Request: fold
Amino acid sequence: MRLAYLGTPAIAVPPLEALVAAGHDVAVVVTGLDKRRGRGNELSPSPVKQAAARLGIPVAHAVDDVLGVGAELGVVVAFGRLIRPHVLAALPMVNLHFSLLPRWRGAAPVERALLAGDTMTGVCVMAVEEGLDTGGVYASVEVPIGPGATLDELRDELVRVGTRLLVDTLETGLGEPVPQAGEATYASKIEPAELRIDWSRPAEEIERLVRLGGAWTTFRGGRVRINAARLDDGALVPTVVQPEGKRPMSYAAWRNGAQPAEGERFE
Reply:
């Protein structure tokens, strides 16, 4: 099948590579603009743009560029931009979405499922409509969320399962999508302020925040990231921490260096 592919971050690379490996003709890849990344602050292409270059696929940044290339279908994976009605009218599109819709529509479905304490999530191949993740579902697969799963581990599993689902669904034919049923929830983007640990919250909630990655607190006015932690008899016990400007270290090593006074705690 001749396809147009729309995606930007690293999680959108495996599906693109798998579609090409399965024999699909990807006519164009539409991705985000180059951004300044890293210490050198130099312009760098998105992961999907880099993959497209390796695969020899033309790259564009405007969604309208999917038109006029002879594509039969558009495939959207973590593109992050709404697609305008006139494009959808000209080219049908499917989206690989990393949740069991209608739960967690929006930008951060994996993160919100983890933070909410969901025990089950999944992936959907869905029809792209004007609304945000409102289209009918062609196929879906459930994926359990393990009790200690980190965001990176869960995302990797969802990408693996979703890539297979996407390829299989296009191979067998889309058929008719099934309308979404049930209560819809919205997965808003994780804001930086949400990553600061509120020690008044239940230990289970804080532990899930730590598994999300980037959770932080302060000690004596300096920021300390909590990179890993465990629950012990209902209490949160940090296991790996990272003081600002330093490398990650064991919590025991940090305590030996910081030597907290009796009663002194993270703030």
